[in-house]
Design a protein that fits this description.
Elements (H helix, E strand, L loop, with lengths): L10 H8 L9 E6 L4 E3 L12 H4 L3 E9 L2 E3 L1 H14 L8 H15 L4 E8 L16 E8 L5 H5 L2 E5 L18 H12 L4 E5 L5 E4 L3 E5 L4 E4 L9 H15 L5 E4 L4 H5 L3 E6 L3 E8 L2 E2 L7 H16 L4 E3 L4
Parallel strand pairs: 7-8, 7-14, 11-12
Antiparallel strand pairs: 1-2, 1-6, 3-4, 3-5, 4-16, 5-6, 8-9, 10-11, 10-13, 13-14, 14-15
Length: 328
Amino acid sequence: MKAKKLKIWSEQDYLNWVKQETALKEKYFAMYSTVWDAVVTNPNLMTIPFDDHMVHRGDGVFDNSLVVNGKVYLLEEHLDRIIRSATAIGIKIPLTKEQMREIILETIAITGKRDCIARFWISRGTGGFSVYPDESPRGHFYLIITSFPSYPARYYEEGLTVVTSPFPLRQPFTPQVKSCNYLSNAMMEFFAHNVGVDSAIAIDSEGYLTEGSNKNVAIVTKDKIFKYPRLEKILHGTMLKRAIHFANQLKEQGILKDVVSTDIPISEAYNSSEMMFFSTTLIVAPIVKYDGITIGDGKPGEIYRKLREMFKKDMTENDEVLTPVDYD
C-alpha cells in the first residue's frame, strides 16, 4: 500500500498557522463577513466559504469606495450601485443599505486608517457547488479594508498607452451589473500587457468604444466636445458620472463646447485631442497613445488637468459627497 504524504491538520495545527506573522497585514487591515457577523484583523482569517457561489461560479457583485483623510468618497453612490447590481440578478441581499453603511464605517474606524479603500461584495451565498441560484437561501455581504491603491506616477504625468481589445467585455443584458465574473476584463489586461501597453479598451459589435477592463473612457474632440459612450452600453461608473458633472461645469465656463453621450467610433478616438480613463481607484488619467496612434500632442491635455484638479477638490472639500468616519 502506497504511503500517504498529505498532512491531516488538527484544529490546533490550523490555529498555529493562523497565528503566524504575515506581510499581508501591511495591506489588508480588516474584514467583515455576514458568515461570522464579526470583524477580523488578521489577514490569515480573512476567508470566504468555498461553497459560496461567488467563489466557484463568479455569482456575486462588488463595489469599492475610497477613504480620503478619514472620509469616504461617494459612499452613497457605491452602495446604491451594488444594491442595483444585486437586485438585477436576483440576489437575496442580507442587509439593508443602512446596515451596510454602518458596517463599512465601523470597520474602517476599527483599522484606524484615514487613507485606504473599502472593498465590498454581495454574493449569491453558500449552499453547494451547482450553478442553481436557489441552492443559496440568502446572499452574504463581505467587506475588506485595504491599503490605498497605487499607480505609477507616469500614468498621471505622462499618460497611458492603450490598445483595442480583441475580447468582448460585457453581455448585452448585464451592462449595469458590476459582476464578480471578470474573466473578459482579465483577458483584456493580459492582452494589453503582452503587446507592451498599459491597458485595453473594448468595443461593441458595431465597432464603437465601450469601456476599459475596469475603467470608463471618454474623449475630447478637437472642437472641445466631451464625449462618452452611451450609458445603456456601459457600466455607470461613479467617477465617470462625477466627471460628467465637472465637464458640464467646464461647459458653463465656456471651456468645453458641449458634453455628449454618444456612439464613439475608433476613428473618432484616434482623431481626438484628448482621451481619458476614469475609475474609483485610478480616478482620472490621460491616454496619450491608442493603437499606436498619438492622441492630440501626445501629452496630458488641458481638460484632463482641469478635471484632475476638480476631483482633488471634490474628494477633500465637498462634504456633500464625503461621509465622515467616527474614529473615537
